[in-house]
Amino acid sequence: MAGFWGRRKQEREELRAQDDELGRRASAALVATDERIRTTTDELAYAEAELGVDATKNLREALTAVRTHMREAFQLNQLNHDEIPDTDEELRTRNARIVQLCDWAEDLLDDRTSALEGPIERARRAPEIIAGIRSDVERLSARIPHTADTIARLSERYSEGGAAKVSKNAEEARQLLSFATHGADVSERRRDAGQREQANLALETAIEAVRRATTLIEAVDTFEVEALRAESTLDDVVTDSREDLAAAREFAHVPAVSTAMANLQSALHALPAAGTKTDPFADLTHLREANAALDVAVDKARERAARPVPAESHVRHAIEDSDRQLGVARSVIAGHRGWIGADARTRLAESERIRLDLERFVGAPIDEDDREKAMADARRCGQLAGEALQLAQRDIDSSRPSSGWDGPMGGQRGGGNNVMGGILGGLVIGSLLDGFLD
């Protein structure tokens, strides 16, 4: 008993310590959040001066929401320190709510202020960024003639469709660089006029224009290298395709393989002749697809050769055999409905379900891809029917009374007609079992 009361006292002390810690957390969180609201208000004023009112809308709305919800936290803290006594549960609930509200406020303000860090940093470094934009425009403009020459060289070597991805890149990059210069000028003028929001917007568009122009110019050099790599790879794929065609002749009698071989040969014949303009990417893609299709067909044919496909006649024989076994089991169970247990009926239902799946093969050609599964399903159907029949016979035998058997024709042993009914019932089951075993 002493141990029980000792444990209760220890639990109360631990709970009291947890409540005290929660109270200290709530008080500290309130002070920290109140200070955070004041500092964020100052940051908002600075951000509005740097970015404008519209750019700081999200932070201003977040501050309003935080002030609204923190009123509840301060009211709960006031209730904790008024003259009305509170229970431990009330204090615990209020302090937990205060901590929750303060954590939410801190997270919301962190999210909104972090979103403004990048724009504020760019606005603060606007003169430096504008100088960098003009330097980038000058550097990229010097690369445009080389880019135009590369595009002209690609147009001579590759077809119109092959070089279409980069054929307009030089002109588009030139327009983007002109736009970036204009945006930098507008940003400077708006900043000098005190229109910070418009200045920042012009600065953002100029930065994006330089980025896009850089991507277009670099894409031309990348395309030239990738096109050369595609041509080299195309030669390897052509060699590999011819070797695959030679190896596939072993299975040319298989329709799927012969079709894949014809498609690959057509893809090889469709390749442009030497000295003509080509699209190496499209040619490589087309040839790879045809080569992969031939590999799949040959692998499938090789697998079939290693594991022969059952003859269609064997599959149909298996289905017919399962029909006979299912018919015997169905007849016995239907003739002794009150005597058959759940196990036999379940096996019969599973067998009938599989037989329904096999119905699509009755009276129609069975494709080679379906024969193995159809054979397995037919055997499984017959096996389940056999199990259902065995379980049904067990249930019938266990249901016979020791004093005499009420056969399927009705009546107890004793009268001539009843004896004859039992004999006839036994003959019916016996004949059905003999037919199943045969």
SSE blueprint:
Layout: H1 2-51, H2 57-80, H3 88-124, H4 126-157, H5 169-192, H6 196-248, H7 255-269, H8 280-306, H9 312-335, H10 342-358, H11 368-399, H12 416-437
Helix pairs in contact: 1-2, 1-3, 2-3, 4-5, 4-6, 5-6, 6-7, 6-8, 7-8, 9-10, 9-11, 9-12, 10-11
> Largest beta sheet, briefly?
none
Radius of gyration, Cα only, in angstroms? Answer: 43 Å
> Level of helix content?
over 70%
Low-confidence stretches: 403-438
Count of domain modules? 4
User: Terminal Cα separation, in Å?
Assistant: 78 Å
What gross morphology would you assign? flat
Helix count equals: 12
Short overview:
By secondary structure, the protein is mainly α. The protein contains twelve helices and no strands.
Pick out its properties.
438 residues, 4 domains, 12 helices, flat, disordered C terminus
How would you explain this protein's 3D organization?
By secondary structure, this protein is mainly α. Helices cover 82% and strands 0% of the residues. It contains 12 helices and no strands. It has helices at 2-51, 57-80, 88-124, 126-157, 169-192, 196-248, 255-269, 280-306, 312-335, 342-358, 368-399, 416-437. The two termini are 78 Å apart. The relative contact order is 0.05.
